[in-house]
Design a protein that fits this description.
Elements (H helix, E strand, L loop, with lengths): L19 H14 L1 H11 L5 H13 L14
Helix pairs in contact: 1-2, 2-3
Amino acid sequence: MIGGTDRVVGRGVGMFSVSQDEAAAIQKAFHESGEWAAVVELRRHFPIQDNVNALNAVRAIVKWARPPHAASADTPV
């Protein structure tokens, strides 16, 4: 299950959802302190026990770009 305090990420789970806030926190930890700090941050949100899977998830999340801000109503398209 993914959501709140009942998040379980382990064997047999192929994917999980990461919010923009969670991704930002993981990216910040990575850029400020490195991969393993980002793994620690990831594990604050998702109890991934396997180091290889956690590190792969961090590396994928760090590559994400923030979505562009929505164009304002005054901006011509």
